[in-house]
Write a structure and sequence with these properties.
This protein has 10 helices and 10 strands. By secondary structure, it is α+β, with helices and mostly antiparallel strands.
Length: about 325
């Protein structure tokens, strides 16, 4: 374990760095914030940070005030690629040859964070201990925030379909409703119900019903914009949020979604199934609950019209 530095100025630098990182909520901004603090603590130095990705390689997280034009030289001095490199390339560098670039805690073969710096002529160079302790602090922040992000995604996701769960989609709708109201922007929601879903479960079993739900969720996500959101709010019900969409645009999308799902074929349980959905639109004034209720009522009304048409035919 690295021992804290005994240099008062370096101790103060690490304390300031730890304080700044403690208040962070986004792993993607750790590099930016950390490098700004290190630069301020040590005038005459400029920094870069590499972060270990899931595949084990290192990707550039932040260049701070270093500038892209200096990254190649920094990488060459350390014998690694400043944009992406394998852990083997880092550990192959003898420790005594990397006093200005790579330090990681406990001699780990695959540290979470690698720090690099240029030192201006005549400026004071950071010690190995400072580099190692700073890397520890940054690595802990990245690891913690990534884990919190993963847990947040898991807690917001419906495990069967992969879309947002009821709590998450309704929280998102409340936030979007507030955002739209403040700025005078339109907002619409779609309430989607699978037709004859109980009959599928009763005839083919719940495993086939689960496949059907996943297929419908996949179809919905395939046509939505990045700004839209979809969640499962009931056993066979989905809610779609359409920021910036008025009633006409939402109605067109509702018809498109019904046609898209109707064109989907699912082969399961030795049978070929063609699912169908009924979509209702909710828009206009009112809070999140009002929008959902309006879309739900529109869906039920449309389903009733469809039944009447089928009965006449």
């Amino acid at each position: 374990m690295w021992k804290p530095t005994s240099d008062p100025s370096e101790m103060d630098c690490l304390l300031r760095l730890a304080t700044r990182l403690t208040g962070m909520s986004d792993a993607g901004r750790v590099g930016e914030q950390a490098l700004d603090e290190l630069h301020d603590c040590l005038p005459g130095t400029t920094w870069a940070m590499l972060v270990r990705e899931v595949d084990g390689t290192y990707a550039l997280c932040a260049a701070g005030r270093l500038g892209a034009e200096n990254l190649a030289a920094l990488a060459t001095s350390a014998g690694v690629d400043a944009v992406r490199c394998a852990p083997e390339a880092l550990t192959a560098i003898p420790f005594e040859q990397r006093p200005r670039y790579a330090c990681w805690p406990n001699g780990a073969a695959a540290p979470e964070v690698v720090l690099g710096t240029f030192v201006d002529p005549g400026a004071r160079a950071p010690s190995l201990t400072l580099l190692a302790c700073a890397a520890q602090l940054c690595g802990h922040a990245v690891r913690t925030l990534r884990e919190l992000g993963r847990l947040r995604v898991e807690s917001d996701t419906d495990p069967l379909t992969g879309v947002q769960n009821r709590r998450a989609i309704l929280e998102r709708l409340t936030a979007e409703r507030g955002w739209a109201a403040e700025r005078g922007l339109p907002l619409a929601v779609l309430f989607i119900d699978l037709d004859r879903f109980k009959a599928v479960n009763d005839t083919y079993g719940h495993a086939v019903g689960d496949q059907l739900l996943r297929a419908v969720a996949h179809a919905l996500r395939s046509v939505l914009r990045a700004s839209d959101a979809v969640g499962r709010v009931g056993g066979d019900e989905f809610l779609v949020i359409l920021p910036g969409a008025g009633p006409s645009a939402a109605a067109r999308l509702a018809e498109s979604l019904e046609a898209l799902v109707a064109a989907t074929e699912l082969v399961a349980g030795g049978a070929r199934l063609r699912p169908s959905v009924t979509v209702g639109v909710g828009s206009g004034e009112g809070d999140a609950a009002t929008l959902v209720a309006a879309a739900d009522q529109a869906m039920l009304a449309r389903k009733g019209v469809r039944r009447e048409v089928a009965a006449v035919a």
